[in-house]
Structures are given as structure tokens and as C-alpha cells.
TrEMBL record:
One of its GO terms (molecular function) is nucleic acid binding. It comes from the Eukaryota. Residues 25-104 form the RNase H type-1 domain. This is RVT_3 domain-containing protein. It comes from Cephalotus follicularis (Albany pitcher plant).
Length: 106
């Protein structure tokens, strides 16, 4: 894997998350990539029923928790959930109780 010098110099880690919910349960995945290009991949299965956006939040919080334990200083997170991204960027206002709780935890 070729190293992108600009990314390595800035020390920015990348976190990508995705969550889903269906009749058989709720799951999420996350990939944490270091500035040097090595990756940590996690698959999460929840023992509680979560809606799609809740699964996205759970993945984001898990990824940030892992990054904190690794003492990551700079991180850029991405998600395909427009709601989660909008809430974390301050573009949206949380109106439903679960989203308010996730945002306050974030």
C-alpha cells in the first residue's frame, strides 16, 4: 500500500462506519485506518433492537472509543447516514429522544 505523504504528515486517522437493521437483528461495521495505512476492522452485532440510524450511532461511538484507547489525536469519521452526519456536524437538530441521547453522548 502506498502511503499518501500529506495524510501521514497530518496524522489524521480515518473512521468509516455503517449500520443496519433487519428482522434478524441489528449490526454494524467499522474500519479504522491509521495515517500509515494499517487498518482495524470490526463487525458488531447488537443484542438489542436498533433502527438503522441507531446502529450507525453505535458504530460511530464504538469506533471513537477504540480510537480514544489508541490515543488517536486527529480523526475524520464518515457514515452513509445523512441524519447522523447532519447531527454531528450541527446541520440538523435532534428532535427524537433516541437521537438527542446519542448526540449528547457523542
Amino acid at each position: 500500500m502506498e502511503e499518501d505523504p500529506s495524510e501521514s504528515e497530518t496524522g489524521i486517522w480515518k473512521l468509516s462506519v455503517d449500520g443496519s437493521s433487519c428482522l434478524t437483528g441489528s449490526r454494524a461495521g467499522l474500519v479504522l485506518t491509521s495515517p500509515d495505512g494499517w487498518t482495524l476492522e470490526y463487525a458488531l452485532r447488537f443484542k438489542f433492537k436498533a433502527k438503522n440510524n441507531e446502529a450507525e450511532w453505535e458504530a460511530l461511538i464504538a469506533g471513537l472509543t477504540i480510537a480514544k484507547h489508541l490515543e488517536v489525536q486527529k480523526i475524520e469519521a464518515s457514515s452513509d447516514s445523512q441524519l447522523v452526519v447532519g447531527l454531528t456536524n450541527g446541520e440538523y437538530e435532534a428532535r427524537e429522544d433516541p437521537m438527542i441521547k446519542y448526540l449528547s453522548h457523542f
